[in-house]
């Protein structure tokens, strides 16, 4: 039997005391470690709250643990993470801005992108969910100051007036890679002398990969516009929303009538001489619809492949179909689909189930989709006859039969 060593002999009497101290020490150590762990978890959670939602390093990071990637990654991962965080915050700001009621609308022709609940179409809308600064997402101030940059537009909706240009722009804005100025800038027709820097300053900020857009329907009939846009960039993509020129003329007249109820009748304005049936082509409502003539000017400066012609009629009957073509033309992923639209029976037009940044349905405002006055059938017939050769020429030039005849 081995003799008891000093270690075995001495502590015999003091053993219970030492064990109790040891146990207490162990308990304290455990609580300390637990507190440290809880503290660490909380700190890490805070980081992930403002970080990107999906794995970003490409190194198989799991969604839900992005913060860990940041801690473990090198400068490249950090840069990627920061870029993604910046993009996310900019998108948040963009969504928040879209929810605000728009400021001034160019020449006053353009009503705001009003919000209407299903069944309430035609109401003044513009309730503008999210109009208060308190609702701005965190980091808004920084974004307002310096994130993203303003670019000249790479794509412009150049016309035509009353074709459905507002609907197209507002539908396109649902796309996360499209940023557009709300009001019509009228730069290439009315404000060209203000210079490109002024124009660029009107644009919203964008990040890499986002397209800047604007719409000013009067460009299509402005003689100087093609050369001016080409001088800005000959690569600018041009979109024209066209609509049956007769309906377009009546829509144009309806708009003027709403502002000046004392103007002559449509029938009187249409003819230079009603007895001879000579059409007054100097009346802008008639002139704008001679699409083939206006298009000739554009084709002196742009190849036809750089222009997309959207059917105003199909934009109403099949908005997703037309938006598909537009997204392809702009080189965008097809994100806007039929899932985004519903037909609002009260309004009589397709509306967005929810615009970007809002959970409520959105229809265009009261000034879009007005009831037209009844026009003398004989006048309509005469106008159709007048437009027919120009329409056929236009179909030939664009390679697309719009079916107006
Ligand atoms: N979804 C939807 N909702 C409401 N209205 C729609 C829509 N899609 C196309 N339209 C048609 O757009 C016409 C107005 O065209 P614009 O926006 O180009 O007008 S403007 O030139 O900017 O004033 C407008 O013309 P009117 O019907 O004469 O008012 C509409 O027919």
UniProtKB/TrEMBL annotation:
Q: What is its EC number?
A: 2.8.2.-
- Which SUPFAM superfamilies does this entry report, sorted A to Z? P-loop containing nucleoside triphosphate hydrolases
Q: Which InterPro entries match?
A: NST/OST (IPR037359), P-loop_NTPase (IPR027417), Sulfotransferase_dom (IPR000863)
Q: Which UniProt keywords apply?
A: Disulfide bond, Glycoprotein, Golgi apparatus, Membrane, Signal-anchor, Transferase, Transmembrane, Transmembrane helix
The entry assigns this protein to a family as follows:
Belongs to the sulfotransferase 1 family.
The protein in question is named Sulfotransferase
Q: Name one GO cellular component term.
A: Golgi membrane
Write out the annotated subcellular location: Golgi apparatus membrane
The SS bond pairs are 351-363
Q: Where is the composition biased (Gly residues)?
A: 120-129
Bilayer-spanning residue ranges: none
- Residues annotated as region Disordered? 95-134
Please list the residue ranges annotated as the Sulfotransferase domain.
153-388
List the Gene Ontology MF annotations in alphabetical order.
[heparan sulfate]-glucosamine 3-sulfotransferase activity
**For binding 3'-phosphoadenylyl sulfate, which residues are annotated in this chain's numbering?**
162-166, 243, 251, 368-372
| Pfam families xrefs | Sulfotransfer_1
Q: What is the active site of this protein?
A: 162
How would you describe this protein's topology in the membrane?
Answer: Single-pass type II membrane protein
């Amino acid at each position: 039997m081995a003799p008891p060593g000093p270690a075995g002999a001495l502590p015999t009497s003091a053993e219970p005391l030492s064990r109790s101290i040891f146990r207490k020490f162990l308990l304290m150590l455990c609580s300390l470690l637990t507190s440290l762990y809880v503290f660490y978890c909380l700190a890490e959670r805070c980081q992930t709250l403002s970080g990107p939602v999906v794995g970003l390093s490409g190194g198989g990071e799991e969604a839900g643990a992005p913060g860990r990637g940041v801690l473990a990654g090198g400068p490249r991962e950090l840069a990627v993470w920061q870029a993604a965080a910046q993009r996310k915050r900019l998108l948040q700001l963009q969504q928040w801005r879209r929810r605000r009621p728009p400021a001034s609308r160019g020449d006053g022709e353009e009503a705001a992108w009003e919000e209407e609940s299903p069944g309430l179409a035609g109401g003044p809308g513009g309730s503008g969910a999210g109009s208060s600064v308190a609702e701005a997402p965190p980091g808004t101030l920084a974004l307002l100051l310096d994130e993203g940059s303003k670019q000249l537009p790479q794509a412009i909706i150049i016309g035509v007036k009353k074709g459905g240009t507002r609907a197209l722009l507002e539908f396109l804005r649902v796309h996360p890679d499209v940023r557009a100025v709300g009001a019509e800038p009228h730069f290439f027709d009315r404000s060209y002398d203000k210079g490109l820097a002024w124009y660029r300053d009107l644009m919203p900020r964008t990040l890499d990969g986002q397209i800047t857009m604007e719409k000013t329907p009067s460009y299509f009939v402005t003689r100087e516009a093609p050369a001016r846009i080409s001088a800005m960039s000959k690569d600018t993509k041009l979109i024209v929303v066209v609509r049956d020129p007769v309906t377009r003329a009546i829509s144009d007249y309806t708009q003027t009538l709403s502002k000046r109820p004392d103007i002559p009748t449509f029938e009187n304005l249409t003819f230079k001489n009603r007895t001879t049936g000579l059409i007054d082509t100097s009346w802008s409502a008639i002139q704008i619809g001679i699409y083939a003539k206006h298009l000739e000017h554009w084709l002196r400066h742009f190849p036809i492949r750089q222009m997309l012609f959207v059917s105003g009629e199909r934009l109403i009957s099949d908005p997703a179909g037309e938006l598909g073509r537009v997204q392809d033309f702009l080189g965008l992923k097809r994100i806007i689909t039929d899932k985004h639209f519903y037909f609002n029976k009260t309004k009589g037009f397709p509306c967005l189930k929810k615009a970007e940044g809002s959970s409520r349905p959105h229809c265009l405002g009261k000034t879009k989709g007005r009831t037209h006055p009844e026009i003398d059938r004989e006048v309509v017939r005469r106008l159709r006859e007048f437009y027919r050769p120009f329409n056929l020429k236009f179909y030939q030039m664009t390679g697309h039969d719009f079916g107006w005849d």
